Amino acid sequence: MIAPQDFTAALASFATGVTVVTVREGRDDIGSTVTAFSSVSLDPPMVMVGVAGSSYLSEVLHRRDRWAVTVLAASQRALAGRFAAEGRPSARLLLGGHPHHRGARSEALVIEGGLAALECETRLRIPAGDHVLVVAEVLGVDYAAKEEPLVRVHRRYR
C-alpha cells in the first residue's frame, strides 16, 4: 500500500498550472483554486477539472452545469491563495477589488488579467477516489498570454 504522504510528495514534483473555477449558485458566486485541470478534446473542445468530492465546489458543480475557469498569471499568486481556502468560498468576497466580469455563456465570474478564461458546460461527472472529475464542453474562450503562468510545484506557487 502506498502511504498518502509518499504519494503526495511524489506528485508535488510535477509542475502544474493554477486555475480558479467559478460557478454561479443562486445569488452568490462560488470559486476555488484548482490545479487538476486539463484539456480533453479538440473536437468538440473539452476540458476536465478534478475537485475534492467532499468540497463545496463539488456539491455546486453537481447542481450547476455551467461554470468558468480562469488560468492564472504569475502576478495573480495572491488570488490563488485566497481561492484555495476551504469551506464555502464566496468568489465575490475573495476577489475583493480585483477586476472581474460575468461570463455571457456561463454567468460565472471571470477573473480579469488571467492568461485564459474558458466558459464551460458539464457533460460528464466521474467519481474517482476522493475526487470527482468534471468533463465539460468549452462554450467560449478568451485568452491573452501577456505574462508567465502561475504554476505550482513542490507545494509552492512559482
UniProtKB/TrEMBL annotation:
- What is the name attached to this protein's record? Flavin reductase family protein
Question: Origin, by domain of life?
Answer: Bacteria
> Which keywords annotate this record?
Oxidoreductase
The record's listing under PANTHER family reads: FLAVIN REDUCTASE (PTHR30466), FMN REDUCTASE (NADH) RUTF (PTHR30466:SF1)
Q: Which residues form the Flavin reductase like domain?
A: 11-158
InterPro entries, per database record: Flavin_Rdtase-like_dom, NADH-dep_flavin_reductase, Split_barrel_FMN-bd
Annotated organism of origin: Actinocorallia libanotica
* Coiled-coil spans in chain: none
- Report any Pfam family annotated for this entry: Flavin_Reduct
